[in-house]
Structure formats: C-alpha cells, structure tokens
C-alpha cells in the first residue's frame, strides 16, 4: 500500500507541475512574440515556481495512504508514469487556463475598463491589467492543486481534503501570501493593488478550474490514443538472459557479460543469506 501511495504522490506532483509549466511557457512565448513583452515578470515567475515546485511537492507528496489504494490493481514494472487520464487532465486544464489568460491579456482592459498594460513604456509603473493576469494565473494554479489530488478520474475531488494538515496549511498560506504580494508587494513584485471587484473576478476564474475539471473528467479515457500514456516500456526479463534465448551473434558477447554479472550477483546474494 505504501508503494502505491508513493507512486500516486509522484504522479500527482507531475500532473500539477506539467500543467503549470505548459501554461507558463506558452504565455511567456506568445507574449514575447505578440507584444514584445512578457505578461508575467521574472520575479512573478519565481513566485509561481516556488508554488509549483517546493510548496506543491510538500503538499501533494505528504498525503497518507488510504484503503482505496487496495481496491486498485498494483502498478506493474511497465506501467506508464503519466497515464492517459493524467495526460487528459494536463491538456484539458492547460487549455482552460490559456483561454482565460489570453482573453485577459488581449481584451482584459476593455472588460475591466482599465488602462492596457500591453504597450506600456519600459520603466512605467506596474499596471492593473497585467496584475490581474498574474493574479488570475496564481488563483487558477492554486485551485488546480485541488484537482491534482485525483489522478484516476475521480469526480469528488474534495475527498480527504482535510485529512492532510500539511496540504491545507500550505494552500491557505500560499493564498494569504498572494494577497499580500498583490496588495502590498508592488515595489518588489511589479504589481498594482486590485479592488474588491477585480479580486472577485480573479477568484471566479480560479474556482472555474474546479468546475472545468468536472467537464474534463466526463471525457472518456478509453477513447484517447494509447500513446498519450508516457513513461512506460518493456522490461527485459533476467530469466530470458540466463536461458540463452538471445542468439544474435552481434550481441552474443554483450549477453555473455550480462549472464556472468547476474550469476555473480546471485552467488553473492546466496552467500550473504547464508552468513
């Protein structure tokens, strides 16, 4: 059970991290090409990376095993680390987040009736426009961290949410830190303080990740291409090596070395057991 829990913890972290990476890289690249500027400043990306790497790894990798783990088959040696369900979640949530962020980048100033930050001068003060983009990205990342707790297509993403104090303490602390960064960290984080209405919209886009997750879950995994599963492979059995099944002359010398090495290791293990 513990082995399955460790495997699931790694998979949860990968699902969350890859989603954030895809969104951040695409936004930075398109922003650099379209407006010759990045909507997310360097120090803001450092904060996102702190959320994505250090804090998320502590939050997602510290969940205790549950009895539900025993209801599933054990993972095989060739099981993919990123399953088709995980790939579906990564691409599905990346699509939603990119759609929201690009809408805010290219039309957000008209929606919120604020000054555009796309063509701001080089040393101009931080704009509300790009602060909303940054804040929305962090909100969607935080709420997607709740989605990332489930990697097998479960619908109830809140099951066991409060069973891990480390998880919800980190989540709440990150939310509080984000509020202080936006409202009071303008000098260091290139942000402008937002009003209540703007904050509510950012939170609404973040909560939308949870609702969108239910839509993504509805997509049947069985209909997806098998090559969407990443990280699997064939494992050569040592029994096949020892039995001399490989008769290709070009690899005979290499196989002979493997046979001698495996036999020596087997004898060493036998001697250790006898001692």
Describe this structure in words.
Its main location: membrane. It comes from Wuchereria bancrofti. It is found in: Endomembrane system. By secondary structure, the chain is mainly α. It folds into two domains: 2-228, Up-down Bundle (Calcium-transporting ATPase, transmembrane domain), CATH 1.20.1110; 238-274, no CATH class. The chain has nine helices and no strands. It has helices at 2-34, 42-60, 84-112, 128-147, 165-184, 186-189, 196-218, 238-242, 252-274. Helix 1 runs antiparallel to helix 2 and helix 4 packs parallel to helix 7. The longest helix has 33 residues, at 2-34. The radius of gyration is 24 Å and the shape is elongated. 27% of the residues are buried. Mean pLDDT is 83; it is low at 237-247.
Task: For this entry, give a set of tags.
0% strand, 275 residues, Calcium-transporting ATPase, transmembrane domain, 2 domains, elongated, mainly alpha
Structure in a nutshell:
With 275 residues, the chain is mainly α. The protein has nine helices and no strands. It is found in: Endomembrane system.
Major sheet: none
- Tally of contiguous helical segments: 9
Structural class: mainly alpha
Residue-averaged pLDDT: 83
Order of helices and strands: HHHHHHHHH
- CATH homologous superfamily heading of the largest domain: Calcium-transporting ATPase, transmembrane domain
- What portion of the residues fall into strands of 2 or more residues? under 5%
Binned, the helix content reads: 55-70%
The CATH architecture term of the largest domain is Up-down Bundle
CATH topology of the largest domain: Calcium-transporting ATPase, transmembrane domain
Name the CATH class of the largest domain.
Answer: Mainly Alpha
- Could you name the ranges where pLDDT drops below 50 across 5 or more consecutive residues? 237-247
Give the number of DSSP strands. Answer: 0
Total individual domains: 2
How far apart the termini lie comes to: 31 Å
